[in-house]
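[job 0417] fold request received: TonB-dependent receptor
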Amino acid sequence: MFTKTSVAKSVRFALMFGATSSALLLPQTTFAQQAEQNAEDEIERIAVTGSRIRRPGAVSASPIVSVGAQEIEMIQTPQIEEVLRNLPATIPGDGGSVNNGTAGAATVNLRALGTERTLVLMNGRRMIPFNFNGIVDTASVPVSLIESVDVVTGGASAVYGSDAIAGAVNFVMKNNFEGVELLINHSETGDGDGDTDSIALTLGSSLSDGRGNVALSMNWTDRKPTFLGDRPLGLLGIATASGGGYQAFLDGQGPIPPLDNCGGPNVTTFESGGGSTTSIPTRFAIVGAGVSGQFREDRTLADDCSRFNFNPFNFYQTPQERYGATAIAHYDVAEEHTVYTSATFTNTQVRQQVAPSGTFGSTFNLPIANPFIGDQARSWIIDNANQARLDGLLNGGGVTNWQDINNNGVVDNDDYLLVQLRRRTLELGPRTTNFETQLFQLVAGVEGVLYEDWEYDVSFQYGESNRTNISAGYTNVSNIQNALDSTDGVTCNNGDSTCVPIDLFGGFGTITPEMAAYSSATALTKQEYSQEVFNANVSGPVDAIELPWAGAPLSLSFGYEHRRETGETIPDECLKEAPTSCLGGAGGNVLPIKGGFKVEEFFIEGVLPIVEGESFAESLDMEFAFRSADYDSVGNNETWKLGFSWRPVDSLLVRVMQQEATRAPNVGEIASPSVTGLDNALIDPCSVANAANIDSTLRQLCISTGMTDAQVGRVQDVISGQVNAFQGTNPSQLPDAEEAETFTAGFVYTNEELWDLEVSVDYYDIEVDNSIGEFTAQQTLDACYQFGIASECAKIVRIGGDLTIAGSGIQTFTTNLSYRLAEGVEVGINFAIGLEDWGELRFNTDINHYIANERQSSEVLPVIDCLGAYGNNCSPTPETTWNQRITWDLEDFTVSMLWRHLSGIDMEPAQAAGSFEAFRSIDAYDYIDLFASYHINEHIKLTLGVDNVTDEDPPVVGGEAGSTTFNSGNTFPSTYSALGRIYKAGVKFTF
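[job 0417] inference complete; emitting structure tokens
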């Protein structure tokens, strides 16, 4: 189990007891902005993100990173995900750079602790999740209406409720917009592709001489795709383990053509090392018999001769079309009472595309007399099958891989064999999934003065997300089984008149349109999610509680919240078919999900001024909160926070906060049925890939998981970095809520006389216990075959000794894991230098430095250390990242440069040992982005920008260096720019 370092303990001790000199020695982190009003505005009662209390001179006891509307404008994007993705406090989540693994959404991942542990708010209220995992699609946020984006570090569950383990992201919207604003933006890469166009129209007006305001913002975005094949790096799959294909890339060569009689579209040589083993012509294997080969175009059968280059079909940038509208209004119905409302609607369509489908090693009962098998191939199959029979590999190890139809004791033309076929079905076209999401959310409430200085706020919100996913271009494995069971090539032996026999034993083009129509599949999945929240709270000063050294009494906020969330997934009937559904090549089946939860919460929050106006303390405040949440799913959970804000002198603020945060399991984590799918893995220790290292102990462990002695060391290894998995929720062992201890401490120094200087340093330590998640497939394999843990061996299900055959796999059900944590330091530096007649220079620096970022699934398994690492367990997590912006303003002209830095990272040690040496580390990366704007007049403003000015190439790591979600096109396109230089232009009309 992780033990805090002595440095971390010293920091915590020193800051907790006021020894601020220790804090001044901490390394760098991100800017933590305090929300503080000027002295002349002290009568106004304001609020900051992370607190429900409005009070004069409010400051945050928790670090807050704030990104303003001007910074968003300079990034020139209609997609807020680009702003969030580049923050040093985050690592990339789902978004436009994710293809194979996208959910058709844009998410945010604070501190690399998982998107499900980041609470996303709009004006301090929950946004409607886009699916049953409770995750918000930030694409639904209207960028043109954003006033600022506030990111709170550390748990905020005591204030906002569950999910704020890593912190909260709050989109603060413009509340009093007046006039007309039309914004038109365009961007494209230096290669002339990847276009993104957007239009946003915002209208606003005050009401009844300032008694209220109403604003409406309408937006449209169209993002075009960029294919892997549009870039040299993406032309061919490069093998992470061997480096196959890497030299060809360095030499500027395209994929190497295959051998004669072993070709087809996008087929490359077997020796190239890259690409997929599901190729053209068909690869053949008898299940569990150690017999394999590959057909040729002339229908003969011999050794493997080709791979399929799947890369060019995939996207570096997924296409998206989105339109939406948001209305915000408030009106003073009486002098001290205001009604408010907001309504949001978005329609988002995202298309994912991967290479054409195939049979991907699915198992079929194949009649040896199938007429499409050539004579030489038939003899080859019979001879090798009989040798396997003599070796004891037919009908052994719990698998029936031979049907002796004529009962003569030998394999011959009358018999059936259980075989694996790997044939890429290009004739069906690429596999696509279109995600269409319609989302709306309505908020209505009233706020005002309850009595004297006591205020109230009562609101109700309701939201729905309705999604339709249409998948096409896939093989229908059940129908292919029917179509293979033919001995005349005209009719199928199942007697179905609609069945069309299929020819998988020649080259490209042997699948006719009629065959494709019967053996392909298109399927639809509907997802529905709803959320309703009722909140009532009151806040104000408790005059009876005021300390003698303080200048103000205790301020309290307390209230009640009711929340109900429900989700449902409705798949097509054919998607339910186990183990692979009708969508062969999709990784598994889909079963209906229907579930939800409700929670009743009571909360209280307070700020107690302790000292004010003394020589040792301009101010010293204590901040506290407590929330009790009663879930109908996991019972009662309690969260709290306690912190201090101390200003020894006017220019220095010292702050410290200890919190306990919780996250209750979401709908998907408590209601997902068991389904089959795919999971990333490095090696099957019982396979041919590890044959030289199998000793007697390992052999017995392999046998204990369903292998025969003859199969050990002879079955195929992991295919393309993936094995089959059984996923979902175990109804007899539902996950409990997870808890987090979060600690933050730091200081903010300001000096208005010295360039308006502001420096902030904040330390954070977030440790999540009982974290909800899944054991990875490789962890289960290691726990069984390295540590001999019987309970983990029981999770391994083999067929024919294999883990890649349909029906086999590893149980990776959702459960409670041991822990995960993120620890680090943030620094923010901001100042401005006046240049008299030459305008002003502004400097803004945000830095994050991780001290630790790790997790452990159980005490018997090794710690996964993601600090400065990448791999199958870790998305790229640089130890240090920073953003440095320099801006020059001169009257109507603005020029700005943004320097983005990511420190170098290394592959996870266990994975690096089996990987090509050049792919074991990634050097530090630095990106330079430029922006310029000019006001032609008071109504028209032009903007220009260039991202990645120096056209930095992304790092090359091959195609199996990480999860398929983030490792694509031989790199990590969500972390590093795979598109090269990007040009941006826009115009804004204001009236």
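[job 0417] notes: The chain has a mean pLDDT of 90. DSSP finds 14 helices and 49 strands in the chain.
[job 0417] exit 0
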